[in-house]
Amino acid sequence: MYYTCIELPKRITYFSCLNWYPTFFDDIAARLLPIIPLIIYRLIENDAMDAADRALQVYSTFLHYYPLNFTFVRDILAYFYGHLPGKLILRILNILDIKKIPFSESFPQHINSSNAAMCPPLDYFATLLLGLVNHVIPALNNSSKCAAMGDIANNSTRAPHGKIQATSQPGPTNSSEVQKPYYQMQDPGTFTQLTLETAVIELLSLPVCPSQIVSALVQIVVHIQPTLVQSSNGLHGAPGSSGQGSILPTSPSGGSSDSLGATRTTPSVSGMNTSNFVSRSGYTCQQLSCLLIQACGLLLAQLPPEFHVQLYVEAARIIKESWWLTDAKRSVGELESAVSYALLDPTWAAQDNTSTAIGNVVALLHAFFCNLPQEWLEGTHLIIKHLRPVTSVAVLRIAFRIMGPLLPRLANAQTLFSKTLSLLLNILVDVFGRNSQLSAPIEATEITDLIDFLHHVIHYEGQGGPVQASSKPRSEILALFGRATENLRPDVQHLLSHLSSDANSSIYAATHPKIVQTP
Hints:
- About 55% of the residues lie in helices and about 0% in strands.
- The protein has helices at about 5-15, 25-30, 35-45, 50-60, 70-80, 85-95, 105-110, 120-135, 140-155, 175-180, 190-205, 210-220, 225-235, 275-280, 285-300, 305-320, 325, 330-345, 345-350, 355-370, 380-385, 395-405, 405-410, 415-430, 450-465, 475-485, 490-495, 505-510.
- Belongs to the Mediator complex subunit 23 family.
């Protein structure tokens, strides 16, 4: 439509009164917001740190209005972890509205510390984990808490640390959030997800190396039960209480006299004050210790692979240095009993406060594995590589206990399943190989349960789900067993003779002529 010279000024005056602008000018700010993070990514990627710092200095206030600024901060810290100078990290954190983010109280002083090489105290990491227990980990159901309270009321001889100080239920208050697992909470606006990702940002921003952070977290996990008990009641317990010894043994045998010796006690960890943790959580010491381990595994799974490698190294070190595995005076029977106590039913250790470093570390690894995406599970083999060479059935069982739960999860990832199974067979050869030299002879019948597990898991993988009467393993898996048995002792070969693809030597192969083939 064409306007006369008289009408045009009238229309301009009309639109100016309405503060109306053309669409391009009206949306230019919103269109520019997603571009600035891409520019910053490119600058950092090309080592233009000074230019990225200047860009953030100019646009940090503007980026407050970017709807994905929290995701941007988390992703850029994770993707370029280890390559960002401290000054740039502080500039990136300024993008966030600090008042609305639940950072730890001591976090600002740790990232602004003049001594960048000093790792924060254990109390900082423990408080971080407690926040995850209270706001991220799904709360235990009311029945378990009521049962715990009933047990305390009916059993006056139980140690005072079993009392529940708080009546409020920890965890998310939204019932729909409680029922969702973590990986289904995709909305970054929920307080649950915000708390978890804030903890991730804190750890990624600390000016210390991953090994220091992982070492601190693992140290908390290893000593969590005795630390909670001692900080709640003191080392000697409350007066008049029975059933709780004055010393907390770390030996998984629990009842042996030497496990109660002064040199085997687990003192409260220095630098960690957990005196009010139980009251702030509303759980018993036993419940809280398990949930803190679960929270630690979840938190580590959110961090970059550099942290995962350090976790495998630290976990292997703790297992190998455990005094009851390195003590040459221990008999095979004692070690077997110890492993069963620490691993097969770790709730025993939690109930009578004789938790073990190995039991806690294995629980941490399982919590960690459960939250890892499948494409990162191949890195889990590193922990077994650090444990080798395996020279005892006790360590063999620990390795199976660590990696065993992963195999059913890998049933649909044939290559990774085969690699993991091959790794377990290799450590089996380490102990029961033809050329293995053990300090004491071990009968093959000692590992019949491990053979049963291997039999079941390869049928599970062949079926692609729960084992049925018609389940058959894949021929490639049977060939893998065949190659491994060539290096085993004859008595162990006999236990695996049914898992062979040779119909002349295997009753199983002869009765299952149509073994599942890979298409």
